[in-house]
Amino acid sequence: MSVVRTTLRLFVFAAVTVLAVLLLQHWMANKQYVFNKDDIAKLAKQYAGQDHEQAFSKVVVELRKRYPGHILPDEDLQWVFVNAGGWMGSMCLLHASLTEYVLLFGTAVDTGGHSGRYWAEISDTIISGTFRQWKEGTTKSELYYPGDTIIHGVGEATSVQWSAGTWMVEYGRGFIPSTLGFALADTLFSTQDFLTMFYTVQVYAKGLLLEVGTLLTDAGI
């Protein structure tokens, strides 16, 4: 009887999990999104080749004009280290929700490793430096330059490499909480830099709270 109960519980758990995934997929396929990857890429491309700090300042100003209430205020903008997949970079989160994020990303040193495999599509437009990507199932890598946009599809995995001084504007769309495991794993099990982990969770929470506040304001509450 215990075997039957265990089997039944596993079946129920699997069925509930599949149902939850299908419901999430349906919701994400039909919901209205704030941002569009082509618009973000087009905006970032305007400033490709410029000094990255000046370019980022212009991108933030323009995003606030286009998407009022969806970009974190200056006092909440913070550069936070990211250790994941063997590489190390730094990000500045501008927007975050359950299904979208916009951030500035880059590295001041040469770095590379595993891209991660996500339940989200991620696009990066290079402002400065170079980015090399080696796609799964191929034997050659591709090198990208300022103005180029790289798309990392849902479920894909690649080898990635940034040269020192590479900075980019990144947009992600999908089930964003699913990306946090990869983003925090190296911090948890390798560097044990728990202060950085706190900063990461804190700024994501601020992004979520901003979206809730904007949603309530738009609803007249």
TrEMBL record:
Keyword Metal-binding: no
Membrane topology note: Single-pass membrane protein
Keyword list, A-Z: Cytoplasmic vesicle, Endoplasmic reticulum, Lipid transport, Membrane, Nucleus, Receptor, Transmembrane, Transmembrane helix, Transport
Main subcellular localisation: endoplasmic reticulum
Coiled-coil segments on the chain, per record: none
Pfam families for the chain: ERG2_Sigma1R (PF04622)
InterPro entries registered for this protein in UniProt: ERG2_sigma1_rcpt-like
Entry note about domains: The C-terminal helices form a flat, hydrophobic surface that is probably tightly associated with the cytosolic surface of the endoplasmic reticulum membrane.
Known partners and oligomeric status: Homotrimer.
Official protein name in the record: Sigma non-opioid intracellular receptor 1
Source organism: Channa argus (Northern snakehead)
Upper classification of the organism: Eukaryota, Metazoa, Chordata, Craniata, Vertebrata
